[in-house]
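Example S7 (structure tokens).
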């Protein structure tokens, strides 16, 4: 498969992830106001993120490997599953896809007369944050630890599920469910990133607060991805 096709697949897959996951948070999580039975809430948003990865992996996995996430690309490189020469092009494509999705989501959201972004509010426009911008008011240290640990385990699941000795054809299900679980754990802490492209795609439109904290949602997920990738690279090295 040519690199150009891989990059287009990564762009489209990341677009789908951000539009589906963040779109569910912006448009559907609290639909109708507090207590409305049509709002999907934390559980629904968590499932939406998992479904985007699951469906995107089946659609694009055979083309690009379905990373859709710079932290995943870095982790797979650290684990010996991805060539260094494709790392930066993948990250660029993923970020472009995330930003494009954030822009489209903003245009949709603005179609409602009551829509407004409060840049000082936690989770504004599905953005990630810590301290005052954390949905649960969690500290920067708690946010950093959460993002590192959960991204590391996400890489362990990805590498284990795609190992040559794993059951064939089921990797997207395991990966999608893992991302759902990650959101169930960490939405109250950081609004869940584990993906710098996802964070960037909405932070650019969420205001100065989200942009000022974006550094953590690049550093922590990539560090976690490297840790998880190296850990599983060692763990699975002798398997045949």
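Recovered sequence:
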């Amino acid at each position: 498969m040519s690199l150009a096709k891989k990059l287009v697949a990564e762009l489209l897959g990341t677009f789908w992830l951000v539009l589906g996951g963040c779109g569910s948070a912006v448009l559907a999580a609290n639909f109708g106001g507090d207590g409305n039975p049509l709002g999907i809430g934390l559980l629904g948003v968590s499932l939406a993120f998992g479904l985007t990865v699951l469906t995107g992996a089946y659609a694009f996995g055979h083309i690009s490997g379905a990373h859709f996430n710079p932290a995943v690309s870095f982790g797979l490189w650290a684990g010996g599953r991805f060539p260094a020469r494709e790392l930066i092009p993948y990250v660029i494509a993923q970020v472009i896809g995330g930003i494009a999705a954030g822009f489209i989501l903003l245009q949709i959201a603005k179609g409602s007369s009551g829509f407004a972004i409060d840049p000082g509010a936690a989770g504004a426009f599905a953005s990630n944050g810590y301290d005052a911008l954390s949905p649960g008011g969690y500290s920067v240290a708690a946010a950093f630890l959460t993002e590192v640990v959960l991204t590391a385990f996400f890489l362990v699941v990805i590498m284990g599920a795609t190992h040559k000795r794993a059951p064939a054809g089921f990797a997207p299900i395991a990966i999608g469910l893992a991302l759902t679980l990650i959101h169930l754990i960490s939405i109250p802490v950081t609004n869940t990133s584990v993906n710098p492209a996802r964070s960037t795609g909405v932070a650019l439109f969420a205001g100065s607060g989200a942009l000022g904290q974006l550094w953590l949602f690049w550093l922590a997920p990539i560090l976690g991805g490297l840790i998880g990738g190296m850990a599983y690279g060692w763990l699975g090295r002798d398997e045949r």
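Notes on this example. The chain is about 65% helix and 0% strand.
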